[in-house]
Design goal:
binds guanosine-5'-triphosphate, alpha/beta, binds magnesium ion, 29% helix, binds zinc ion, Ribonucleotide Reductase Protein R1, domain 1, SH3 type barrels
């Protein structure tokens, strides 16, 4: 039993959480709907009554359930988790996916290519303890594909980058390297970059993609829900809807990990509270003057840190306010 579960990503990390007398079946969340979740198990997919709001359950989660009543018993602690800032009205964090090993950051070799956006996604991965891989699609349509790949890879020591033609099976097949038995990947990125096209090639699924007809807009299919599917190589892959703007929260350490080139310099400034503007002995400005640091890179780091601290303060304030008014449930 345990063996077949391991093919679904079950490891000793989860096994250690099972109580000696605890009963129930184990499954991995494949879909989350408003009033039910679908879990994947070695025997079959099972639809469960969550008995609570599904907002705190993510695709990729491991759960214990009662197979007779089709009821969720409990969630297992996550090995890794991808969070973004929730829409302003609800405040706090929104869970995107759980127990992911590799985050495939998908961008295309055209106007979508944007270093600031890629740095955000890298931070998302770093803050969730997930390994990032930048995947540049539509390499078949651009002369600059290799240039963009190098730029992407140089954004951070924590990532690699590769170019693919998502319409070519052999080319997409490079991603199988991260999707061996029991391993889980997630596809994120803007709408239309080719996430579902990749998913189809790697899983054999036939999820609708945004095939664009010349004369009418019908036939465009944007993904609207996350789902976990088995890759042909034995691993698992999560498709997600396109993200318009990724906002981060509680990610200060992750930002610094992504921008380690900048933070290494900051550590060498003479003053620990250096603003890198006019202070003497500023290693950051010295590096810019010596052409060793791109001033845009510094601006993007500063902007992301500021935004993160604003978002994180709001989340913290919200938590405090809720604590002070017991009985008031947060809106979903
Ligand atoms: N030429 C070429 N076309 C591609 C490539 N990757 C994706 N496409 C096309 O781009 C369009 C969008 O692809 P999708 O896979 O639907 O994009 P998506 O990222 O899933 O989009 P959302 O679901 O809206 O987030 C489709 O018409 C694909 O055929 C590629 O590498 N080369
Ligand atoms: Mg899609
Ligand atoms: Zn400085």
């Amino acid at each position: 039993m345990t063996d077949s579960l391991s093919a679904f990503g079950w490891t000793s990390f989860f096994q250690a959480q099972v109580g000696p007398d605890e009963t129930g079946s184990r499954g991995r969340v494949g879909e989350v709907h408003r009033d039910r979740i679908v879990v994947r198990t070695p025997a079959a997919d099972v639809a469960l009554d969550p008995g609570r709001s599904t907002g705190e359950i993510a695709v990729g989660d491991w759960v214990l359930f009662d197979p007779d009543r089709h009821a969720l018993l409990r969630l297992f602690e996550r090995r890794t988790a991808l969070h973004r800032k929730a829409p302003a009205i609800s405040g706090g964090k929104q869970l995107m996916a759980a127990n992911v090993d590799t985050l495939f950051i998908v961008t295309s070799c055209n106007a979508d290519f944007n270093p600031a956006r890629l740095e955000r996604y890298l931070t998302l991965a770093a803050s969730g303890d997930v390994k990032p891989v930048i995947v540049l699609t539509k390499a078949d349509l651009s002369e600059q594909a290799e240039d963009m790949r190098q730029q992407a890879e140089n954004l951070s020591t924590i990532t690699t980058a590769l170019t693919i033609n998502a319409l070519d099976e052999t080319s997409v097949g490079q991603l199988f390297a991260w999707l061996q038995q029991g391993e889980t990947g997630a596809l994120v990125g803007s709408s239309g970059v080719g996430k579902s096209t990749i998913l189809n090639a790697l899983t054999g699924a036939q999820v609708a993609t945004q095939g664009i007809r010349e004369d009418d807009a019908k036939g465009r299919h944007t993904t609207t829900a996350r789902s976990l599917r088995r890759a042909l190589s034995g691993g698992w892959l999560i498709d997600t809807p396109g993200i318009r703007e990724l906002s981060l929260v509680d990610s200060a350490d992750a930002i610094d990990a992504v921008f380690s080139d900048v933070t290494d310099l900051v550590a060498q400034c003479r003053f620990s509270n250096c603003t890198h503007e006019t202070e003497p002995g500023c290693a950051v400005r010295a590096a810019i003057e010596a052409d060793k640091l791109d001033p845009d890179r510094l601006r993007r780091w500063t902007k992301l840190r500021l935004e993160n601290s604003q978002n994180s303060e709001t989340a913290e304030e919200l938590r405090l306010r809720r604590k002070l008014k017991p009985g008031r449930k947060p809106k979903r």
